[in-house]
Amino acid sequence: MSQITFQPSAPVRSMPALGRLRLGFDIAPWLYLSPVLITLFVWTYLPLAEAFQLSFYQWNMLPTSPQRYVGFDNYMRLFKLPEMRRALWNTLIYIIGLFPLSVFIPLAVAILTQDLTGPLRNLYRALIFIPMIIAPVVAGVVWRWLLNQDHGLVNKGLEAIGLSPIGFLQDADWALPTLIWITGWKLIGFSTLLIAAANASINPAYIEAAKIDGATRWRIIRDIRLPLLSPVILMLSMMTILLGAQWSFTYINVLTGGGPLKSTTNIFFLLYEYGFSSMTVGWSAAAGMITFAGFTVIALICLKIMRKRAIYDN
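and the corresponding structure tokens:
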């Protein structure tokens, strides 16, 4: 009898494998990412492109009003406006003023309270995080009541110790520092918990080895904790630079409306005023493009610094 041999059949290719062969790449990850990419395109990149286009036109946003092309006139006029220069300067003051409240104070609190245990630790975390979960508008209304020049609790306390009432929201010298404090008050809890979580994740073996070598607590903080906390510190610093002035928008709108005498207006509130108060959408779009370009450059610089200076525990 002749011997019959059976050849193994060729493996059946699955549909995903065939899809990869025909298309040259795996389409599955892009299908998972497609909702996010579509959302980014519709709500971020498309409005950004339209704002760039509108920055070269003069238009009051009325459907029956024609858009008039003015070229770079909107940009040239903005740089000549004193209120634009004042808004840019105030934006810088907001950012610098928020650094102690969003980075330095949370860093000190997180390190100094690292040894708390039990119910006291949970109580401290709850108290410091409460401002973060309060709606910004509600927080603004509460602070307006507390800082009222005539009947506010803060001024009543000042009168009780023999001091004169202060117009925290009415005096041009006090309004900007007051809004910086309110904005930072909302951020302290978030920053503290973030730094505390990173501090708790440091390998305790480093601390024990340093103690065996006779290192003091300050040396441990300076040589071990701060370097290993540098990624979180740099990230919070970048967030403060890029978003600090933007976080204050709600409080400006609720408490001062940019006043008194434009002392609290920053670039983000000025965009809102141009676009929705004076209806000069071309100026608003041009100011938005200037802001976008400036903060893009700053973001790239911050990312470069983070890559060079951040120390990771590998």
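(Above: one complete record from the training split.) The mean pLDDT is 86.
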